[in-house]
């Protein structure tokens, strides 16, 4: 277990390094009400090719939960502070859902740090104010168990949900997630909108969407891909909001194909 302490008001961040020492860096950002373990199935498949940094967003996993409110830009600043702390100068970045919005923010703030970026199952704007208000109220009043079933329904298709051996750990991850981390991050999502800014991103980009994703439907992925200049788009079949968990083989192929190809072109000589 590794922990990067940060002076208040920044959050101390729990992180893990894996993969191959000396290989190009690949940094992952997880989704709301999950933690860095969300990426384990993919890392098992591609870790050998990269040096991998995974970390828990503030208010998630073993990272600190500072007093809210916070914004998506605060989460992006956390990541930039963490990569500075670890002396990681350049990296490929892959973020899913809220992690995808963190990746949008990092791509806007610090394009010179990025070899390539993957915006997975995300949107320039995710959900609406009413929907987020309802989920924040439910979690505040009744706790994370009350939001877990809704999350799981949006995250996975029926066949995955029918198998307790596959489903149970991910549901437990939600119910153990800190309520204040969930509510403050949900409020950050409610207030975030990258519609006007994403067109100025200048980093080689892959957008991943999924056929059955009801949280960030394929049309949101298509909009991200149509807005970010020269972005490549992949819509995965047969999966919902978390394709990296439900079909890590196919997801790993997408990363393994895209990142090394563009990184060769973008990395300074
Ligand atoms: O929980 C959901 O509906 C999906 C989600 C939206 C943002 C995020 O990170 O997860």
From TrEMBL:
Domain of life, per lineage: Bacteria
Example GO BP: beta-ketoadipate pathway
EC code(s) of this entry: 3.1.1.24
UniProt xrefs under Pfam families: Abhydrolase_1 (PF00561)
Keyword annotations from UniProtKB, A to Z: Hydrolase
Domain AB hydrolase-1: 24-247
Molecular function, one GO term: 3-oxoadipate enol-lactonase activity
Annotated SUPFAM superfamilies: alpha/beta-Hydrolases (SSF53474)
Coiled coil: none
Alphabetized PANTHER family for the sequence: HYDROLASE ALPHA/BETA FOLD FAMILY, PEROXISOMAL MEMBRANE PROTEIN LPX1
Protein name: 3-oxoadipate enol-lactonase
Gene transcribed to yield this protein: pcaD
């Amino acid at each position: 277990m590794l922990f990067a302490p940060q002076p208040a008001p920044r959050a101390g961040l729990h992180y893990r390094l894996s993969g191959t020492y000396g290989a190009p860096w690949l940094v992952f950002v997880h989704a709301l009400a999950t933690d860095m373990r969300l990426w384990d199935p993919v890392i098992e498949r591609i870790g050998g090719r990269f040096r991998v940094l995974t970390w828990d967003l503030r208010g998630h996993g073993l990272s600190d939960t500072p007093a809210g409110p916070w914004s998506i830009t605060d989460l992006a600043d956390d990541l930039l502070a963490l990569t500075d702390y670890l002396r990681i100068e350049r990296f490929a970045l892959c973020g899913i859902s809220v992690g995808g919005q963190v990746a949008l923010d990092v791509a806007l703030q610090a394009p010179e740090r990025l070899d390539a970026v993957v915006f997975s199952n995300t949107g320039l704007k995710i959900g609406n104010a009413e929907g987020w208000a309802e989920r924040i109220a439910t979690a505040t009043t009744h706790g994370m168990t009350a939001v877990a079933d809704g999350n799981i329904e949006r995250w996975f298709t029926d066949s995955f949900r029918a198998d307790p051996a596959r489903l149970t750990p991910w549901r437990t991850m939600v119910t153990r997630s800190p309520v204040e981390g969930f509510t403050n991050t949900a409020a950050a999502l409610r207030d975030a909108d990258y519609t006007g800014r994403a067109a100025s991103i200048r980093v080689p980009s892959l957008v991943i969407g999924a056929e059955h994703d009801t949280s960030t439907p394929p049309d949101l992925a298509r909009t991200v891909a149509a807005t970010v200049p020269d972005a490549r788009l992949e819509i995965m079949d047969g999966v919902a909001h978390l394709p990296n968990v439900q079909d890590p083989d196919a997801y790993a192929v997408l990363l393994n194909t895209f990142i090394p190809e563009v990184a060769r072109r973008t990395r300074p000589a």
